[in-house]
Amino acid sequence: MELETSSAFRDRPVNIDESGQQKWIYAKQPKGKWYTRRTIVAWFAIAFLVLAPFLKINGNPLMLFDIANRRFSIFGQIIWAQDSYLLALIMVIIVVFVVLFTVIYGRLWCGWVCPQTIFLEMVFRRIEYLFEGNYRNGRHHKVVTPRITLLRIAKHITFLITSILIANVFLNWFIGPERLLEIITAPIRENWLGFTFMLGISLFYYWIYAFFREQVCTMICPYGRMQGVLLDSRSIAVIYDFKRGEPRGPKSTGDCINCHQCIAVCPTGIDIKDGSQLECINCTACIDECNIVMKRINKPENLIRFDSFQGIESGKRSILNGRTYAYSAVLVVLLIVLSVMVMNRKPIEATILRVPGTIFQQVDSANYSNLFLVKIINKTQSDKNLQIKLITPKSGKLQLTTGQTTLKSQEKLESVLILSLNKQALTGKSTPVELGIFEGETLLEVYSTNFLGPLN
Question: Nearest to residue 280, comparing CAs of 293, 294, 267, 292?
């Protein structure tokens, strides 16, 4: 069946005009079962974003990316900078999962779970509806009255306050609730750097949600362009049933009456009837609006629905194909590898480095000493009473300047270690030594380094 096509090739996003300026989109607020479902999912997602740094598992935050201290808590599991291979593997798994999910379900992430969409559609757009009305009332304010001006000022003040709250939610994921509370409660002059950073992030969010808006999805985010190479005829997406809908028009034989309500409700301003487009975020707003129109004209619902191109053509929908099996197999293998690595990672991570700028010190006529910087991380969920012992050579003397031996769960010890050896134990200018980290009589880790001594 021949489709109705536009007379001009669209070489730019629909929210950009010929001069490159933004065309403002006044999206009508959706209503219907899909919008209700998306609202529920969105509020669960917002609750997770707000509460994740506060919730604890084994005393650790559910989610915290403490970049300053190179300490990451992912679902209560602490990952240190020394575990960077785990972070790299997690990133690979996320990429494979996104690819697999997109191959099967298209851009469902964008319309349902992406923070940009959630905050824009479920928070800022609703604030806009509150102050300026739903779609037509806000669209046709050609004459600006004092009342409209006050409403717009109130809207932007609310936008700014909301942006500050979102910025604090964002910072909470990176500095933790305790540090964030310090920044909020301390006088600005005592914490001006943190306050300035928070204010900058807030203004950035205000600009994004008040002015830049859906252009994040259509111009910046690469995900929409990725779907061009990831989607195939079996991928599930929001799609228009062209077999049933064409030819369009109030008096045509197709079910689509060309009412353009699917365009009016679209947050990115596209016409879903034109097929797969990078601006479509699978938000399902057009499904609800089209179903309302179908009810009014006594036609079957789901002219626009979740389906695949193959499903429209053949009436049979299947997500099983070679790529699905391949991506699933890779994802399962990566998850198994990650699980094995997490279970087998060292409970204690030690780093012993020579103090910069030092060589050796002569203690007396028979002994020499070296200074080392010691960093020990306890990655377990229990306290450890640790000792550093010299394994080779057999004779020697160790002393930690802090004198600390007990290391609490997920705690880091930093100290200076003084290692003294008798000159008879030295094998030359550089003598190999092995240091062991012990808990009682149990050897947890061995660290090899060199002891510097005199030439003779």
Answer: 267
What are the pLDDT digits (tens) for 384-417?
888 888 998 888 888 888 776 778 877 888 889 9
Per CATH, domain 348-452 is 3.40.50.10140 = no
Read off the amino acid at residue 107. R
**What span, in angstroms and rounded, lies between the C-alpha atoms of 322 and 319?**
10
Determine the angle formed by the axes of helices 146-185 and 125-132, rounding to 10 degrees. Answer: 140
pTM as predicted: 0.77
User: Quick one: which of 172, 160, 169 has its CA closest to 205?
Assistant: 160
**Alpha-carbon span 348 to 376, nearest angstrom:** 7
Cα separation, 296 vs 307, whole angstroms: 23
- Taking the C-alpha atoms of residue 297 and residue 399, their distance in angstroms, rounded to an integer, is 87
Pick from 28-42, 77-91, 382-396 the range whose average pLDDT is largest: 28-42
Indicate where the chain has its CATH 2.60.40.10 domain(s).
348-452
